Amino acid sequence: MSQRYAEQHRLDSRTFLHQLGADHAQDTVVLTRDLNPHVEPTPRDRPFLVVPPRGEWMPAIVSHGALGPGTTEHLSDCTVYVAPRTGLAAPATCPWRKVAGVADGVTAFAPATTPSTWSPIGTQAHG
């Protein structure tokens, strides 16, 4: 596979919601480019959704450097959003709220029960 094909193959990544036991044809796209005006990934970005087992809120992480051979837990090249879990019922209008961007230098975050208390727990100095 050529490098150019590999990069094009990774463009416009999407995150799906899958219900265990359901046919994958019923999966719903919940994060992708041009779906929701509150989350605007570029064609090269890779969106991820984290749905904690408890709580009413969930974070979305948009990796801006995901075209390499893999991703890491290092968030400094990511934008982090948070929304109520109920927003999954209507992904195009889910009220995502930006918590941190690349310029903030966030390297990790701590989930909480309300979006105003989601907080960065690590930062990276930009030099």
Brief write-up:
The chain is mostly beta strands. Helices cover 6% and strands 31% of the residues.
Description:
There is one protein chain. With 127 residues, the protein is mainly beta. The protein is 6% helix and 31% strand. It has a four-stranded antiparallel sheet with strand order 3-4-5-6, with no helix packed on it. β7 and β8 form a beta hairpin.
Note the topology:
Layout (H helix, E strand, L loop, with lengths): L2 H7 L5 E3 L10 E4 L14 E4 L7 E7 L14 E7 L12 E4 L5 E5 L8 E5 L4
Antiparallel strand pairs: 1-2, 3-4, 4-5, 5-6, 7-8
Characteristic terms for this protein:
8 strands, globular, 6% helix, 127 residues, 1 helix, mainly beta, two-stranded antiparallel sheet, 4-stranded antiparallel sheet
The main sheet comes to: 4 strands, antiparallel
Choose one word for the global shape.
globular
Task: Tell me the β content.
Answer: 25-35%
Radius of gyration: 15 Å
Low-confidence stretches: 119-127
Query: What fraction, in percent, of the residue positions are helical?
Result: under 10%
Provide a count of the helices.
Answer: 1
SS elements, strand count = 8
What structural class is derived from the secondary structure elements? mainly beta
Mean pLDDT, to the nearest integer, reads 79
